[in-house]
Amino acid sequence: MVADASLSPEILAQYEAVVGLEVHCQLLTNSKIFAADANAFGADPNTHISVITLAHPGTLPRLNRKAIEYAVRMGLACESTITRHNIFARKNYFYPDLPKGYQLSQDKGPICVGGGIPVKAKDPATGQPYDTTIQLHHIHLEEDAGKSIHDADPTATCLDYNRAGTPLIEMVTEPCIRTADEAGQFLTEVRRLVRYLDICDGNMEEGSLRCDVNVSIRPRGATHLGTKVEVKNLNSIRNVMRAVDAEFRRQVEVTEAGGYIGQETRTFDAATGRSYAMREKETMNDYRYFPDPDLTPVVIQDAWLADIQANMPMLPAEWYHKFTTQYNLPDYDAALLTDAKELAEYYEAVCQHTSNYKAASNWIMGPVKGQLNEKTLRDRQFPVSAVQLAALITLIDNGTVSQTAAQQVFGLMQEQPGIPPAELAQQHGLVQNRNTDALKTLVEEVLAAWPDKVDQYRKGKKNLLGMFVGEVMKKSKGSADPKLVNELVVKTLQTT
Prior knowledge:
InterPro entries: Asn/Gln-tRNA_amidoTrfase_suB/E, Asn/Gln-tRNA_Trfase_suB/E_cat, Asn/Gln_amidotransferase, Asn/Gln_tRNA_amidoTrase-B-like, GatB, GatB_Yqey_C_2, Gln-tRNA_amidoTrfase_suB_CS, Gln_synth/guanido_kin_cat_dom. Pfam families: GatB_N, GatB_Yqey. Heterotrimer of A, B and C subunits. Its EC number is 6.3.5.-. The chain is α+β, with helices and mostly antiparallel strands. The protein has helices at 9-12, 65-77, 180-197, 237-256, 302-310, 316-325, 331-337, 341-351, 357-370, 374-378, 386-397, 403-415, 421-427, 436-449, 451-458, 465-475, 482-495; strands at 15-26, 81-82, 85-86, 89-92, 102-105, 112-113, 116-122, 129-143, 147-149, 158-160, 167-173, 209-219, 229-234, 264-269, 274-280, 290-291, 298-299. The chain contains 17 helices and 17 strands. The N and C termini lie far apart (85 Å). It has three domains: 9-299, no CATH class; 314-427, no CATH class; 436-495, Orthogonal Bundle (Arc Repressor Mutant, subunit A), CATH 1.10.10. The mean pLDDT is 91.
């Protein structure tokens, strides 16, 4: 049964969505979590595999130390409690893309427990923003499965085991999310955090960040939890939000029709905006967890934990605080500049060479960001170096070039990187004319050409000042300093 678009707002308002997310983040280690195979996206099928990944008899796994450190980083960023004694278990299920017939994961003792991520969301009824914290139940480490490819052969499913054994952290929230916007904002913050921490690239289109949604409903005001339905195959933040809304409406419709909500796994079709049943949801007992006999416990000692803490990078909240206090930026600027770690670091670098912090922010939010796509941002391929941008801002501040001319200089700086902006401005005739005598001559010529307008100005029509300044700028072919021209026009009108 699919959601009924005719459900009235009054009926929907009688129910409340209860949502929990399971977010899988592939870790940016060089090798897999239990084998030396390369951990890289985009290789030819079944080229990053070994006898360990394929679970050949007699092979033994060995844990990747870096995967532990990356999981701890995320836990510290979320203010979770770090589990010091970690055991890996076998999660048993049979599926073609799981070469071992089981998945190595954590069961009873996840590496990070509790914590939360603050988000800003909007009330769906009023549109008003509010702050909330999405609480985490835990974060655990596990290995990824391979990939089933259904469209490469008309008669068979193809299997690519390159992804098998890739290290993952799975972040499991409490069932504390109430709206699609809260779910979307949480996932946005997770993606931003993993990128700041350099533990995951966050690319949902490549599957390195994936999200499953657990949705149930209950009468508004009730405290019990309903039967949850898990929705899989969500490959974008927008689709996560759409799936929450669609599944909420579907469950309300089933309930209103007197139907039964069963515990099941569903898939979401982005084209139709509907979910479809896949299979009944397994229970914990179905997986027959037991400690893996080939892996010894991992103990995180004080010195190791302290070393990880000491090497934590600045997180978005810390950058935000610095930008709003030390650099006195408005909240809007600070929020945009901290959206990506690369932007925050670039802004900080520019501010080491100029004290005009707001101008630096304006340039980065405008012309610089306009030249960046996702790849160039992630690769830190900024069109102009931080030193060069600061030098351009200085040229504006000291009146060497106008704001308009600076835009042209910025374009030239991208075409001819390495040449100082002052030199480019000089070469292309973009240096502002601040020769008072020459500009005064132009002012007198303009005023002499418009005697009637001068008379109107002196009779009180002061808005004509802008016209006079504009005519002088035309005569100078845009090279005159507008501020100086304005002063000379006013002075000339007062003295003649």
